[in-house]
Amino acid sequence: MSKRVYNFSAGPSMLPLEVLEDAGANITDYADSGMSVMEMSHRSKYFQKVIDDAEANLRELMHIPDDYAVLFLQGGATLQFAMVALNFMNGSGKADYIVSGTWSDKAAKEASKYGDVKVVASSKESTYSYIPKVKKEEFRADADYVHITSNNTIYGTSYYELPDTGDIPIIADMSSNILSVDIDVTKYGVIYAGAQKNVGPAGLTIVIARKDLIGKARPETPTYLNYQIHADNGSMYNTPPAWCIYVAGEVFKQLLAKGGLPAMETFNREKAAKLYSYIDESKLYSNPNAVEDRSLMNVVFVTGDADLDKKFVAEAAAEGLVTLNGHRSIGGMRASIYNAMPMAGVDKLIAFMQKFEEANA
Ligand SMILES: *Cc1c(COP(=O)(O)O)cnc(C)c1O
Questions:
Q1: Substitution candidate for ligand 1 out of 74, 103, 171 with most atoms within 8 A of CB
Q2: Going by CATH, does the domain composed of 18-257 fall within 3.40.640.10?
Q3: Which of 227, 329, 332, 335 has the least C-beta neighbours within 10 A?
Q4: What pLDDT band is residue 2 in, cutting at 50, 70 and 90?
Q5: How far is the CA of 84 from the centre of ligand 1 (A)?
Q6: Whose CA is nearest to atom 2 of ligand 1?
Q7: How many angstroms is it from 175 CA to the middle of ligand 1?
């Protein structure tokens, strides 16, 4: 076996080793088909079972009711920024955005090409160190939807309570925390997520959408960007990202076998609590975010000295703790500890942080 590192990358990120090994073992002959999932027709009975199982298992994991469509698309969360606007800015043409980081800022800017976007709250002035709390009356009563980013991958904050929007559907970019905690899907109009953070390989985008909201896309919407087209065609209007769907489906199976999302939530809370409590105790490291909004998935920290941060990242990498650099826009460190990061990875990181602190005090 080749060596495996603890990879703290924000995305693409670690996948469960068992899933990778199993995919490897089946790579030339999947389910006695005599071919790889990468080689087979998406119209074959083999692949139909792969995609049906993936959808059924995701529905079971997240308790997705029948009145929601589950779609496997491409283009990443970035394409969703436009797709959401084209499909859902279809009534008043108004949409309210809460800007809690770079991704929600991008989502709002993209949507403003298509309609009347209002940024109802932003934490930009404090470098996105908290989740803005918005009262119901601050939303425009006739807004078609309210958009949030449920976990801010770059700044390391997360929603733990949804805003009260009344009857206005909430659309959430859940790219970096889908499947990390047990959520109530029925509180959302639409959930979307690029797969490469906490689900599977890059190239797959998951969309979970209330069926009564789709089917009203604006007339100029390109065919591929109309959710109804994908819902009507079982996510196979065109060739789907077959390999990515297969690997994501194997991840879903494994999560179910491990106790589903309640078990993942407990595990993720334990990992994050350990790391944050070490950071809070230490004299060298600090986390800049509001304690109640800290992300379970992306833990950011700094030493307060940019050169020392660089040294930290380099020395950690030499010990098999890789991709700990913060996002290129903010620097510092970021440990992304998604579902597939084992406790042993967090323990090894904390041990390294202690050693580094002693050596650089
Ligand atoms: C990574 C990320 C994106 C961008 O995803 P792509 O799949 O690269 O388009 C958008 N939103 C959030 C919250 C992310 O973490």
A1: 103
A2: yes
A3: 329
A4: low
A5: 14
A6: 175
A7: 6
Ligand 1 first shell, C-beta below 6 A: 11, 76-78, 103, 149, 153, 173, 175-176, 194, 197
Q: How far is the centre of ligand 1, averaged over its atoms, from the C-alpha of 32 (Å)?
A: 36
Q: Give the SS3 label for residue 237.
A: coil
Atom of ligand 1 nearest to the CA of 205: 7
Report the alpha-carbon distance of residue 193 to residue 41 in Å, rounded.
25
Average pLDDT of the segment spanning 262-287: 98
Where in the chain are all domains bearing CATH 3.40.640.10?
18-257
Residue ranges, CATH 3.90.1150.10, the chain: 260-360
> DSSP string of 7-70?
E--SSS----HHHHHHHHHTSSSSTTSSS-TTTS-TTSHHHHHHHHHHHHHHHHHHT--TTEEE
Indicate the fold that domain 260-360 takes in CATH. Answer: Aspartate Aminotransferase, domain 1 (3.90.1150)
Question: pLDDT for 171-188, tens place per residue?
Answer: 999 999 999 999 999 999
- What contacts 355, CB < 8 A, 6 or more positions away? none
Nearest Cα neighbor of 6 from 355, 312, 342, 268 is 342
Q: So which residues are the catalytic ones?
A: 103, 173, 197
Q: Encode pLDDT of 100-112 as tens digits.
A: 999 999 999 999 9
Q: Which helix (H) or strand (E) holds 88?
A: helix 76-88
DSSP 256: H
Residue 12, preceding bond cis, omega within 30 degrees?
A: yes
> pTM for the complete prediction?
0.98
